[in-house]
């Protein structure tokens, strides 16, 4: 969506309060919940919420509700970025120290989450080829031209953002699970990729304008979809001309335990089915790549016809 320009007097009035200036500076460092902001500022959550609301109304902050939590980050767009450059002096030392404590708590929580689920994930990984082989192929397929603006759908633990984030002009991950998003934030912070935001969202209603994304990735998420064709159609909607959709998932299999133990809705996909969904969504399907194993992993790549996105398309934002 295009952001409406805010009168300069309103922008500077919003930043005139010392606490709001501190909040804006902290949001420039990392995405935070209102509760975490209150912790860093050592102020009550209702008071911090009021300050956040004023900054958001001025177009300087964006708020994303995730269950009972509200995440705050510094807004995108040319006007907000220009203001951000003016306030990029470091926050007070005390704020930075408490911010580091928040970062450490996130990383520790993520490690605990991964430790608790590692056994289940390891059992699943033993059924298919090594992740490193599939990831090397993903990098090879996508490195043929710039990744541009990346949307990782069903980001899970944030692995695709970790793999591709440095090469993207902008990267955002979405997932329906608040628990997974909290784990992903901790993992990305530990990897030095805290600037890659993740947010709650659904693969059937992606938080992006039409023709605004250069690369969409669905990595081991399509098998959770009740309507995989609709998920591919929605991914195609947000792709810019020349944009690419990469899907990595299982080929057809008979492992019924994955339905019972891992909530898989679909037991893999045939090439013909994925190619058909891509064609119906207006994408040109490239030859798939298969990795044979007890569970065969396939990478499908589709491309939206057209050239490079126009400058006007590239100005569009994640919703």
TrEMBL record:
Keyword Methyltransferase: yes
Assigned keywords, A-Z: Methyltransferase, Transferase
Keyword check for Transferase: yes
Pfam families: HTH_5, Methyltransf_11
Domain annotation HTH arsR-type: ranges: 1-94
Database matches in InterPro entries: ArsR-like_HTH (IPR011991), HTH_ArsR_DNA-bd_dom (IPR001845), Methyltransf_11 (IPR013216), Methyltransf_Superfamily (IPR050508), SAM-dependent_MTases_sf (IPR029063), WH-like_DNA-bd_sf (IPR036388), WH_DNA-bd_sf (IPR036390)
Domain of life where this protein originates: Bacteria
This protein's name: Transcriptional regulator, ArsR family / Methyltransferase fusion
Organism: Pacificimonas flava
